[in-house]
Write a structure and sequence with these properties.
This protein starts with a strand and ends in a 6-residue tail after the last strand. β3 and β4 form a beta hairpin. It is flat and about 50 Å long. It has helices at 12-15, 19-38, 89-96; strands spanning 2-9, 43-47, 55-60, 63-68, 77-85, 104-109. The strands form 2 sheets. A 4-stranded antiparallel sheet has the order 2-5-1-6, with helices on one face. Strands 3-4 form a two-stranded antiparallel ribbon. With 115 residues, the protein is α+β, with helices and mostly antiparallel strands.
């Protein structure tokens, strides 16, 4: 079963920290992915651009209207994600607890395709 581990952070988490701290956080992610590989846990993941680079489509009066910015404004935004393939939510949570995170982490099952 696949799960998405979504990493939320404040925009300032990367912008206002010294380069050494930022490099340390990136090294933590390298260590996390090495840990996944060592255990044979299938995964992929990416960092995403900051919210000001987002483009959102919203339905207004039956039409899709494009707007600049994230879907939901707020203090924290999606900073990156991992998709893992493990047997249960309990195992996904155990793995997510090892994942470096800023403000918070959300875990969601990915719906299996009907194919």
């Amino acid at each position: 079963m696949k799960f998405m581990i979504m990493l939320y952070e404040r925009p300032t988490d990367w912008e206002s920290v010294p380069a050494e701290r930022r490099d340390s956080a990136l090294a933590d992610h390298d260590a996390f992915t090495a840990w996944l590989r060592e255990r044979g846990i299938p995964y992929y993941g990416e960092a995403v651009a900051p919210p000001e680079k987002a483009r959102t489509l919203r339905r207004k009066e039956g039409e899709l209207v494009a707007e600049d910015g994230p879907y939901a404004p707020g203090e924290a935004h999606l900073g990156g994600f991992y998709v893992i393939d493990v047997p249960s939510m309990a195992e996904a949570e155990e793995i997510a607890r090892r994942c470096p995170t800023g403000t918070g982490t959300e875990i969601r099952p990915i719906w299996a395709s009907a194919n």
